[in-house]
Amino acid sequence: MDTDKQFLIDQFTGILFENIVKTILNPFEEILSLLEEVNIFKIQSHFKNLRSVFGRGFTVKSMKLILNLRNDLDSISKNDIIDACKDV
Fold first, then answer.
1. What element of type H or E holds 82?
2. Residue closest to 51 by CA, chosen among 40, 42, 60
3. Res 5 pLDDT > 80
């Protein structure tokens, strides 16, 4: 995923200003962080940031889809995280 991020940076930096590229890639970085984060408060923060970027389109179903990509968590842990993050 880091190579994908770097690829995107390399492709768009010549076209757009660097700060615009970073702004565009911020949601991508939030998702990457969610795939590795273990601290529930930081997970809530990442979900909150994604909800602010995507608005009402970022739902509980979106959260579940992202968490289902994680194979280091069992289903109970994933459900606990969803329950803790529903109201962000």
1. helix 75-85
2. 60
3. no
Report the predicted TM-score, pTM, of the whole model to 2 decimal places: 0.79
Concatenating the DSSP letter of every residue in 47-75 gives: HHHHHHHHGGGS-HHHHHHHHTT-SSS-H
| Structural tokens at position 71 | 């194979």
DSSP 12-52: HHTTS-HHHHHHHHHHHHHHHHHTT---HHHHHHHHHHHHH
Closest CA to 80 of 43, 48, 46, 33: 43
The DSSP element (H or E) to which 88 belongs, if any, is: none
d(CA 33, CA 13): 22
The DSSP H or E segment spanning 84 is helix 75-85
Amino acid identity, position 54? F
CA dist 54 and 60 (Å) reads: 13
